[in-house]
Each structure stands twice: as C-alpha cells, then as structure tokens.
Design a protein that fits this description.
single chain, 214 residues, alpha+beta, two-stranded antiparallel ribbon
C-alpha cells in the first residue's frame, strides 16, 4: 500500500463515493471538477495511484478502485462518517455542519480513538446523511434505493440518504421537514407528502440529492 497522505485519501474517497449510489465510474474530468483541481494535476495523481495499485485507469477512460484501493478508501470513509455521526450525536452538530469538521478530524483521529468512538456510538451502520459506514473489514449494509428524480408519482418509501455536498440544501431540506428515515410519498420530483401529512415543496436541487427506499 502506498504512503498515506491527505491528498491520496481525498482522491480515493471521491472515487469511492462516486459509485455508491449509481453505477457509472468516475471520469478524470468529473474527478477534477469535484476536487476543484486542474485536469493535468488529476491526471498526474491518477498515474501515481495506478503505480501504487490503488486504481485502474486507461487514458481518457474512467477510473476505478482496485481491491486494495477500495479497502483503503473504505477505511477513510469509515473514519469520516464515524466522526460525522459522533459530532451529531455527542456534540449536537446539525447535519449540515459536520462535513467540513470531519474533513479535518478524520486525518487526526487515531485508530484507538476511532475504535472508541465506534463503540460509544454502538457501531452505527449509517451516518447522519444516510450514507453507509463501512465496518472494520470494509463491508457496508445498504438496501435497494431510488433517486427522487427517478421515483414515480405515488411511490412511497423512507428517506435513505441525502447528499451532504451542499450544506445550504441540507438546511433547506431540514426546514421543509425532510430528514433521514422519514416516510414520504412522491407527488412529483420536487413535492413529497411527509409522514402522510401536508405536501412539502422541496428546494431546487432536491430531486438529485434525495434517495428513497425502493
């Protein structure tokens, strides 16, 4: 395994995260956009990751994790999501406040402290946004899902996951009454009926940021 570094961790985490909720592999241009880096910098790093047997990639083609890369990425993701859950449950952070804090803390928490956090939290399977927390062996528990945009009118299901990429959207969704595990009925791509109550009009961007049980 290659030398650990926050930069390598960010690449592996982004590649891992891209295919958690859809099947298309990430492209170099998509990776550059997510990380906010120049395509040339991404190409250079991907070549280094491939040399360390962490990713597979052909020129201009998509990028995928090797078994070793996936294992390392799962360990990084586990750290991040356990820290997010810890901040919400133990320190009262809101779900739109934890991502940036976890980005810093995930590199500083020791393995011993991480194990203690997991035990303290009861070894949770999901973080505050509904993303699966890999166990110590990299395994995850996830059920069948559908993106809100793709859910047919009348579809009923629990909210499984909300993307944490946009804190303002997270806060707006919370203001609209939407949260993880709430039961909703789809009216259309921007309107849902929450727990059998009144219709809630969701903010722009929600259709591509909310996943429901299939």
């Amino acid at each position: 395994m290659g030398v650990a570094s926050p930069a390598v961790d960010d690449y592996l985490k982004t590649i891992y995260h891209h295919t958690e909720w859809q099947d298309e592999q990430i492209t170099p241009s998509q990776l550059a956009a997510v990380l906010g880096l120049a395509p040339s910098s991404v190409t250079e790093m991907v070549q280094k990751l491939a040399a360390q047997n962490l990713v597979t990639h052909r020129p201009y083609g998509p990028i995928s994790l090797t078994a070793e890369g996936a294992q390392r990425a799962a360990a990084i993701i586990r750290r991040h999501r356990l820290v997010e859950t810890w901040l919400v449950q133990e320190f009262g952070y809101a779900w739109h406040e934890v991502h940036d804090e976890a980005e810093v803390l995930e590199h500083a928490v020791s393995d011993r402290l991480l194990a203690g956090i997991a035990a303290r939290l009861g070894h949770p399977h999901f973080d505050p946004h509904g993303d699966a927390i890999p166990d110590a062996d990299g395994r995850v528990h996830r059920e069948d899902f559908v993106l809100l945009r793709d859910a047919a009118p009348g579809h009923r299901g629990r909210v499984l996951r909300v993307s944490d990429r946009d804190p303002q959207l997270l806060q707006a969704l919370e203001d609209a009454g939407l949260s993880i595990r709430r039961q909703v009925e789809v009216v259309d791509a921007q309107t849902v009926r929450i727990d059998g109550g009144a219709d809630a009009v969701l903010p722009d961007g929600a259709a591509d940021a909310v996943w429901l049980a299939a």
